[in-house]
Amino acid sequence: MTRSLLGATLALALVAAQAYGDEGAWRLSGFGTIGLVRPAESDASLLRNGINTPGRDGIDFGADTVIGLQASHSLTPGMDATAQLVVREDQTGNVEPRLAWAFVRFTPLANLEFRLGRMRAPFFMYSETLSINYANPWVRPPTEVYGLNPFSDLDGADLMWHSRVADYDLEVRPYVGRSTLERLTEPATLKRIFGANLTVYHDDFSFFAGHAETPFTLPVSDPLFQIVAGALRATPFAAVTEDLSGKDGYARFDSVGMQWDNGDYLVSAEYARRETNRYIPSAHGWQVTFGRRFGTITTYGVLAKQTEDSPVSDADLSSVPQLQALLDLYNGFRNTAQKSATIGTRWDFHRNAALKLEFTHAKVADNALGSFFPVIDSGTLLFSGRRVNLFSASVDVSF
Known about the structure:
The strands form two sheets. Strands 1-3-4-5-6-7-8-9-10-11-12-13-14-15-16-18 form a 16-stranded antiparallel barrel. Helices cover 12% and strands 53% of the residues. Helix 3 (223-233) packs antiparallel against helix 4. A hairpin with a 2-residue loop joins strand 5 (95-109) and strand 6 (112-120). By secondary structure, the chain is mainly beta.
């Protein structure tokens, strides 16, 4: 998998270089990251929810390596088209180009934009730059927050209205659509997303708030589900299986964030909450980042925590202890709660390229996997209460 990922990345980079030299009326840009992560514990691999396949023990390139090309073209005054092609490993283990953006933008007024097509789902403060790692301070966004909603695409429409009030610039963004997340089994789907964001800018400071709601589907068929569902169906508790897998879920997602960056210092904080009625836990998470620049060198630290608010199913099966133990294990496999502390350094060795090095110390919550997945044949089931150390490095470019 590592060879195919690096091969696809190199191939797309060569295409980008050729296209950029003959762009004509098209405006072309691109970005790329070659990233690696190495857990210190031999039975743990990093799992970025909705992004990569868990690696085997050792160095894993699949979690962070990505390359993308973006092309924009003016169609008429007030109307343009944008497409973005991205190559990275996905949750099914495949490495192939996929269309991340493909939308038409209409600008009927100077302060009003309307987009129709595929765009980035704007659930977080840094949603627009999640794949463009050069634009972010970290090797990867804190998983305690950004793992709460793994859906990246929005197939639909949004409207962006800009206004200036006193010394503040405001952006209001309502949006509608749907999103699909490919998985090893059947895909998960956000069926009818209704959301709205507000962003406020003032000098070096920005503030973000967002809310979204949607019905969703999450069909589950992994071996653990088959064992738990089979055991439940043989008892009077068969109805509990309706909490574990299906097409009748409903989710609400909220996020609030702020950033202050004066060129020398960077402070960033974000809080997000996922509330669901079934299939996945309700949870919330937060992160705080502090950074200090010394010329081309930036040092930074990150504190982050995710907490489970309610499990996939809180059914009381204590009258059948073996069944309760199975359900507790199932709930634990869906629980990504943990807390972590990260220190890192970024070196901008070129005006469009940066090297980042990070060390993360994470403590997984009780009865949880955290942001990790057991290495095959390791014998580990959960990382409940364990401490896991990670070393990460990346080279990020923008062109």
